[in-house]
Amino acid sequence: MATEYDLVVLGGGTGGYVAAIRASQLGMKTAIVETEKLGGTCLHKGCIPSKALLRSAEVYRQSKQASQFGVELGQTKINFSQVQARKHQTVETLYRGVVGLMEKGKIDVYQGYGRILGPSIFSPTAGTVSVEYTDGSENEMLIPKYLLVATGSKARTITGLEPDGKTILTSDEALDMEHLPTSIIIVGGGVIGVEWASMLADFDVEVTVIEYANNILPQEDQEISKHMARRLKQKGVTIVTGANITSQPIHDQSTVSIVVEQNHQSTTFQAEKVLVSTGRRANTNQIGLDNTDVAVDENGFIKTNTFYQTKESHIYAIGDVIGGMQLAHVASSEGITAVEHMMEMDPFPISYQNVPLCIYSDPEVARVGLTEQQAEQQGYDIDTSKVSFKAIGKAHVHGDTDGFVKLIKDKATDDLLGVHMIGPHVTELISEASLAKLFDATPWEMTQSIHPHPSLSEIISETALAVEGRNIHG
Asked: Which domain holds residue 433?
């Protein structure tokens, strides 16, 4: 059986289903092919479940600090089964919402494995999708005018540290732990590793982070990285940087040991579990790319132009499968841009320098634009300013004054180059800085927006004033 569509989306994650909704809005007959559940990694194995666990960890941490606010509680303890139940309920609620959006948009959803075919009796060009069902049902053929590949990514593993689902885990398996371990080694101190380190430390787990680079969060501004390391150490997290794992893990009945080389010295670290958090790789195997002229780079990511067209002009690709900023909100924006390009709407290309990135640890981290190091490497003559949350009244009311906002501007043009934040609720505050970056604002223009008092957002204008030496409270 063969069915024709204007657009077939291969992959029903955040980028895929958002693209499908936009296509439906524009009158395209649209289908999604998804092997598992709509919502993809973000909804089921990433953003949402991890943030649900982080929220529970936050409430537990705050409950232990309640006496500082004059609130006396009884003994505080974790019911991890209930923590997981709340996470599952959150995911299920949002999943039902996505299913409802597909019904509202009259988008056909095929629950099966999609494989791209080359030119055949169905189409003179590559791009027909064969939907394969695990129950033995006959394959269905979908013949699209346009094909959008949005198959996402999976956790990258390390040779010798392949996950077994018991003692060696990726974030996928860790999200479904039935019990909190007493101790854990996290291999990788990037965004995911730091979020897990913060969460598990707040849950009273003994945490060790092993990072190959010379600092955790190596992609962040160095001042942010150093501040985060200090805060995690205050939580009791052991951080080992400039480290290389030199041998296979050693298991016994209840622990796993890893030998790490640092500064030409070997140290053995032991814990109940190991979490491997070393990045992600594209889901491109066995989807039929070899039946097309679609090109991939040396890391296995699909190559596209600025409008997400591949070498085959009717085949597009977005999200984690093309590398870049592997973020759900980026995939969504890429999907909308791709669909609007198919419809010849002349969409504005995405500027990745204007995309905010957030880390939902304690403390939270957020940024947009260049780091100080990147700006200098690109030859900018810069001015910077930094204002502590200690200068902000609402931070004192909130009970968390640790952290800062840092602003970087171009001396020659006065343009905003980057904003970096660490501290309370900065994942919400970053949107104002993102808007300023989008509109190519100067720090002076940022100061003209009057902020309510008391509010954490006052730190934005204070930092913009500070770069010109005019800050009031900082």
From this structure: 356-466
